[in-house]
Amino acid sequence: MVNRFWNTQFGRGSTGGAVNQVSKTPRLMDENQLDLTLGSHNHVRVVGDFNKQTGESAALRLNVMKTQADNNGSGSSLDKEGIAGAYRWGIGEKDEFQVGLYHLNNNNGMNYGLPWIRSTPTSSALESTVLPLDPTAYYGAASDYNAGSATHLSASHTHRFSADSELRTQIRRGQYERDQRAGTVRFANAASQPGGQAVSLATFDPNTVINRGNNLKIQDMDTLHVQSDFSKKFQALGLKHELLTGFDLATEDKTVYAARTAGAQGGVTINKPTTTIGAPNDGAWVDESTRVLRVNNQYSSTGWGAYLQDLVQVAPHWKVLGGLRYDSLKGDYDQFGNPTNATDNGTKTSYQMRVGEWSKRAGVLFQPNELQSFHLSYGTSFNTSGDTYSLGASNVDTPPEQSENWELGAKLDSADKRFTTRLALYRATKKNERNTDPLLPVVTLTGSRYVSGLEIDVAGRLTPKWEVFGSFTWMPDAKVSKAAPCPATGSCSQATAGERVGDRPALTPVHSGSAWTTYQVSSQWRVGGGVTFRGRQTPTRSEFEVRSFVVGDLMAEYAYSDALTIKANMSNVTNKLYADALYPGHYIPGAGRLTQITASYKF
Q: What is the pLDDT of residues 407-428, one digit of tens each?
């Protein structure tokens, strides 16, 4: 559970929440670890983590990874490698520095998903469900792929004025490439099916014919981020303060490519052969290298933000938090129309966006003793239309997507410190909410929507050898409270499922959660198991509900010595068939049963 009271990642780009990723940093010790994982579908993964102290206050850390698999459990092959290195010096001193390099390269397969299916040809769309197929079944072309790379250089400096005051500055330069060539899988029309009937569960069999699409997502992106934060603890007017202030600057340049069509544009026509349900992984292949690319659109933006936050102890057990942030963004977007010849890139239409927004954060914290704490928090954030790197006549003047969050929460520890419970009642509201479908670009999903719910986390030990963890989310109250305005031309979203006033927002299950437990059988053996569940929900811009699911996992671990540990994991033990990612016309299946064994060696 995310404690939104303490989360300072608010402002532009955080209406959907933020994930706190912490990179591995060099430490003042010599410590190394090698992990080798072997598993289902010829899965092989090697990971190395090497930390070397190079001086009294300096250290070097290097991480390397290589992963390959024929199938990830839901139809995609894996082929990726990466390296991350960092050198840190002045550790713990007045001035501390770090430089780092990160590179990840992917050449994975691509499963674009499977179409929904109805019970009978005359059944309502409300009866749509998943296909009765093994989760590993793949019907895309063998030449489909999802390649890409991410590279960034980083540098940071921390200056400690005192034990209670420091300034930290970070710079990161990044380059990202994506070359995704895959296609939607759809049922062929009734005339192309055996017996000339539309496909449904009643007619579905190994001879059912499916078509493969030609969907591309090819893009390059360069970024530069600079952030500087100053923190200080001090006393003023008889009160204790924890001040946090700073600024950040970001530049982003993105280019999106499209394929030229055959004929006057000088491109080629690629036709992928059809296949049948009874012939998954049929090896069909087309030459993707023959495609001729052109620039479809390009986006460039410069944004900056500044914030100030203060946590004040106003009484022995009470603290008050107040924060304010301002963001400014300037974005320029060029869209190119269809070219008329092989050398022309198409007519350029340009759009500009200028946005300046305030975000607020406030909260109260009550800590009556070391075992209990309670908080009430409020915060806002926003996303601009330009955060989708796609502007046009329909959304250049669209107001920013905004969020408003209230939370009443608590952290409760048992008297013997064996159990910790975190719980929160919350209400999150989004205005001008957007969503993007791979095939149906959506500018504005709803005018306003909200969700109210409860989150509970429990972790602890039933006995010295028996650990348990559970997490549960309950969202009983979720509605579209205001429809998006109708555009001057085109269809009106107020009549679209999931966007009408009173509708429950898409992708919002009432119940979801997980439970996990481990037991130390002996000094060397530990076993565990758990379940993950998600309730019924609807895909975006759809009216039918996708059924709930429960997936079980098992684990066994053997500590051969302090240096060598062997762990076996089995996920989705029952090979449960379920839809993981949901879209109006298709779904991505959840991974089927996977078994993996990992040997970890420390030296």
A: 999 999 999 999 999 999 999 9
